[in-house]
Structure formats: C-alpha cells, structure tokens
Inverse folding.
C-alpha cells in the first residue's frame, strides 16, 4: 500500500510517499480501506518532535480517518466487510491513518452516518470526542447549566456549543465578530467578541450571579480577577476560589451552573 511516512521527526518536508506492507487485523480489530484522513494539531506536533508518542519508525501519522471495512478479525460482531466507518485512531506506539489501509480496534470504530461524506466524517472524530468528554462525560451538562465555550467557531468549540445546547444549557461563546452568525447558528445564546471585550468581563455582565467557582480537577492555572492576569500553577484542584481557566485548557464551575473555558486550534475561532 501507499502511505505518507516520516523516517525522522522534523519539518513537513520529512514526509514522503512510500510502499508499506498492508497491516492485518488481529482479534477484535478491523482493516479499513482509508478514503479520507484529516490533520489535527496533535498530528503536526508528533511530526515535529513526537518521541513521546512512541510511534514506530518509519512512522505513519494520523488520528482521524473514514473509509470502508476491508477485513474483520475474530470476535468482531458489530462490523462487517463493506461497512462505511469513521474513527479516531489509537496511534500511541502504532501506525496512523495516512495510508491506504489502517488497522484499528473495532471497539472504537463506528459506522459512518449516511448523511456525511467520507471527508466530513474524517474531520469529525477527535474534535467532537474532545468536546463530548468535557461537556457530557466530565461535567454531565444538564438543563439550567451555563456554559462558556472559548473559540466557538473552532473545531472543538463548534462541537462544544452544539453539545451544550443539546443538553439544555445556556451557552455563551467567545469568538471574532465576523464569526458571530456562525457561532449563534450553532446554538450559542450569546457571543462575546474577545477582541473588543475581555471575556471575563463579558461573562460577568451576562451572569452577574456568578461569584464562587470550582476548578476543574487537575487544573494548572489560577486567574486573578483583581489584576486580570494568569498566576502561577495551582495543583490543588478542588478548592473554591475566585479563579478561572487558562484559555484553551481548563474550566471553572459553580454548583449547578458552570463556565467551561476551552480553546481551539490554529486560531480558528
């Protein structure tokens, strides 16, 4: 099969097209004929200096993919040859999706919605799962909650706005003014133009009852409202204080309502 590989970490020029053996699915795995793959920031970060990902050299990078099932390993029951699927690969210590074929654990492979093209399906998994983990799995968002999504027009942000709205929450989102219509169309009740309004001020004017907040577990930064700056790393995550999340990483919460501060990638906000 043809694959885009790197033989060493570095610049984009390290990519080359090479012939690689077609992998074979083991028990509980499927072989996917890849029709489309997408590029996430984590992909280029691994390409630049990704020893931490333990990818085997020569390495095939790539998380997200969509395609058709070409072969099925033993013990796989929910998928069959010919099924159109999409997924975000487990590439730590493995090969990725920038190839004509890719083997993945069947338990994380799902059937592609018929309404999506392969290209659209390949662009969805990692960003959408990141948003789902925060909005649904961690915070268990429910009606009556208030959610702030940073960069509401970005990859993760656009998914988070929709998930929060579908969960019944009141949704605030930051973004550029020229993305206002898009952000509102995704379900945001209010859009904060971060270029003209400090987001913490915009949040307070939108929800003046918010006073005490709780840090998301494992948060690393504390926001000092009196001086409007990010302070030194904070390891204790469960205390209540006047604090906020470092844009792009962490969240704050208050009893039955919370603000989620989440960033996006490559300035798409």
């Amino acid at each position: 099969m043809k694959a885009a590989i790197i033989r060493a970490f570095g610049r984009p020029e390290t990519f080359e097209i090479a012939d690689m053996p077609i992998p074979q699915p083991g028990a509980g795995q499927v072989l996917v004929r890849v029709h489309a793959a997408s590029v996430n920031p984590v992909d280029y970060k691994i390409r630049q200096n990704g020893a931490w990902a333990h990818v085997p050299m020569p390495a095939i990078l790539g998380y997200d993919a969509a395609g058709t099932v070409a072969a099925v390993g033993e013990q796989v029951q929910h998928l069959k040859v010919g099924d159109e699927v999409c997924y975000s690969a487990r590439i730590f210590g493995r090969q990725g999706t920038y190839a004509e074929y890719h083997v993945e654990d069947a338990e994380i492979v799902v059937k592609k919605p018929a309404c999506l093209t392969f290209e659209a399906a390949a662009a969805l998994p990692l960003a959408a799962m990141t948003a789902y983990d925060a909005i649904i799995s961690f915070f268990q968002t429910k009606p009556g909650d208030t959610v702030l999504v940073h960069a509401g027009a970005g990859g993760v942000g656009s998914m988070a706005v929709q998930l929060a709205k579908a969960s019944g929450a009141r949704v605030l989102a930051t973004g550029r003014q020229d993305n206002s219509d898009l952000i509102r169309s995704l379900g945001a009740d209010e859009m904060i133009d971060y270029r003209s309004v400090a987001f913490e001020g915009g949040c307070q004017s939108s929800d003046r009852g918010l006073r005490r907040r709780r840090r998301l577990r494992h948060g690393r930064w504390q926001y000092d409202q009196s001086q409007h700056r990010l302070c030194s790393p904070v390891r204790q995550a469960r205390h209540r204080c006047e604090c906020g999340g470092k844009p792009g990483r962490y969240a704050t919460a208050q009893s039955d309502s919370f603000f989620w501060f989440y960033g996006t990638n490559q300035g798409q906000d």
In short: The helical segments are 41-49, 118-122, 125-138, 155-166, 180-185, 199-206. The CA atoms of residues 34 and 100 lie 5 Å apart.
